[in-house]
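Handoff note, outgoing to incoming analyst
You'll be picking up this chain. Sequence as last confirmed:
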Amino acid sequence: MIVTRPFPTPRLDHIDPFLLLDRMGPVTHGPGEAKGAPDHPHRGFETVTYILDGAIEHEDSQGNRGRIGAGDVQWMTAGSGVIHSEMPSEEIRHKGGRLHGFQLWVNLPRRDKMMKPRYQELRASEIPTATSADGRVTVTVIAGESLGTRASIDTRTPIMYLHVRLAAGASFTQAIPATYNAFAFIVSGQAAFGNRLARENDMVLFGRDGDAVTITTESGAELLLIGGVPLDEPVARYGPFVMNSLGEIRQAMIDYQSGRFGEIG
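Most recent structure output, in case you need it:
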């Protein structure tokens, strides 16, 4: 699997409340080539998986299992802990095929880190889509609100997650509360943010000095626009465990190693 990771990097640890963004692919696998992420633990944060092409299959120690296909979103709140498996679909593993998607890690506030794990899975048809008056901008509203359309996902803290598609010559303005940390990731094409021009795989960080961002493109672009209220809490992380102190990380490791996260049956 080809993975692009805009953050964390040696220069950018996280963008509070976001811990990590991975772009999976786009890649076309041959038969038997596709690899995934077999059984692994999570505690203290959320994973948001958004598939653009192909499909992945998941199961966990809570007894949940399912398939996330093109346009679908899984918002998994790990909370107190789960063992989780994410694999390319059986068809892609055996016969090959195209796979492309994103996974965003969202930190949980201290009060929610030990909450009961939960899933929100939305099919593409269940995710609201908004279109600009001139028809040149389409926004998939995964979280938050855009062009008067509100998402159906419930988030633990205020979060915006938009997939924006702009036709050639389009312009789009999105309100961003001054309390948010926000960034854009260019999926394809190129777009201008004021005097900053960004191309595919570029990430643009926004300062908290205004209440809107305007995006323009000459040739067309596709991008993710993500923001949220920072938690302003200590972050202690070790692999798939994200807590507020090293002591809580040690306890997470003890709980995992002693089997308290359960197992995938």
